[in-house]
Amino acid sequence: MKKEVFGTVNGQEVYLVTLENKNGMQASITNYGANLVKLLVPDVNGKVEDVVLGFEDASGYEVNPSFFGAVITPSANRIAGASFSLDGTEYPLKKNNGENNLHSDEAKGSHKRIWDMKTEGESLILSIEMEDMDMGFPGNKKFVVTYSLSEDNALSIHYEGCSDKNTIINPTNHSYFNLKGHKEGDIMDHTITLLASQFTPADAASIPTGEIASVENTPMDLRGGVLIGEKIDSEYEQLQFAAGYDHNWVTDDYTGAVRKVATVTAPDAIRTMEVYTDLPGIQFYAGNFIDEQDGKDGAKYGKRSGLALETQCYPDSIHKENFPCVVYGPGKDFQSTTIYKFV
Length: 343
What we know:
By secondary structure, this protein is mainly beta. It has helices spanning 58-63, 228-231, 237-242; strands spanning 2-9, 12-20, 26-30, 36-42, 48-50, 71-72, 78-79, 83-86, 89-92, 101-102, 116-120, 123-130, 141-149, 154-163, 167-168, 172-173, 176-177, 191-194, 198-199, 213-214, 226-227, 246-250, 259-265, 272-277, 281-285, 293-294, 300-301, 307-312, 327-328, 334-342. A 9-stranded antiparallel beta sheet has the order 11-12-13-14-30-24-23-18-21. A 6-stranded antiparallel beta sheet has the order 17-28-25-22-19-20, with no helix packed on it.
C-alpha cells in the first residue's frame, strides 16, 4: 500500500493511496471525493493497462463534469422534480438536471469533499459526515466507504450509511471503464452481459415511469452477451430518449445477497470484468454525454470513451411505491457491497 500527495484542495493536502496485489493489479483512490483514480489490470498476456477514466491530480476532480470515479452519496441517480416528501415534510433539492435532481449535487456532493482516511489490513477506509439538511437531505449522516483489493483481482467497495432522521440513502460508484485501456478510444466494441430480465423504462428526462418492463424482444435484452455498438443507436424509443444506453436494469435473482449481475469483455477477450452486488438494480451508462476533455496520461476523452455500471436501488425510488425502499434512519442503517472482478 502506497500513499502520496495528490494535490491541494482549499489549502489542504489530499492524498492518493494505491492498493496492489501479487498479480500486479493496482487500485488508486484519493481521499478527495473517495474517487477511484486508477485501476491497473493485466490482460491475458500479462500486459498491464489502466482501465478507468480519470485525471492526473486533484485539480481535475475539482471540475469532473462526468463524475469520473466518483462515490456518490447520499443519493445517486435522479429524483423527479428535485424534491421529495418524507414524514410529512417536503424537502427541495438542487435542480441540476432540467427540473430534476441528479447525483445529489454536482458541485457540493461527496465526490467533491475531503474524506477522513485510514488503512486497516489491506483495505482503505474513507468516511465523511454530513449535517442535517446538507444539500437538502434531512438527518445528521455518516458514510463509510471501504475499498479492498483481493489476490484474485477483485476490487470490492463496501458502503455503510446511517442517519439520525429518516432520509434517502442510495450511494453508488460512478467509475467509467474501458477494458482496452483508458486511452484506447470508445467502448462500442465491448461485449456486455446483464443478468436482468427486466428494466425500468424512463421518460425523455430519464425519470422512470414506474413500470417494470420485460427486456424480451427489445434492444434492452443484454442477457446473452451483446456488442455495445450493435443496437445502441437503434430507433427504439428508450434508446432515443437517452441517446443510447443509460437505464436501470432490474437484476435477476435478487435476495439481498451478493451475486453476479454483469460481465463486460474487451475485444479479443483480452480483459473480462464481472460485477457482483447485493443491490437490486444496475445503471448501465455507455458514456453518451461525456464531454470532450483532457484526462490523465495525455488522454483525450469524449463520447463513449468509457462505460459505467452503477449498482443501486432504482432511480426515483422515493416517488415509486413499487420500487425498493431507499429510506434509512434511526434503527435502520444502510450497508452494501459491490465487487468489480477481473477474470
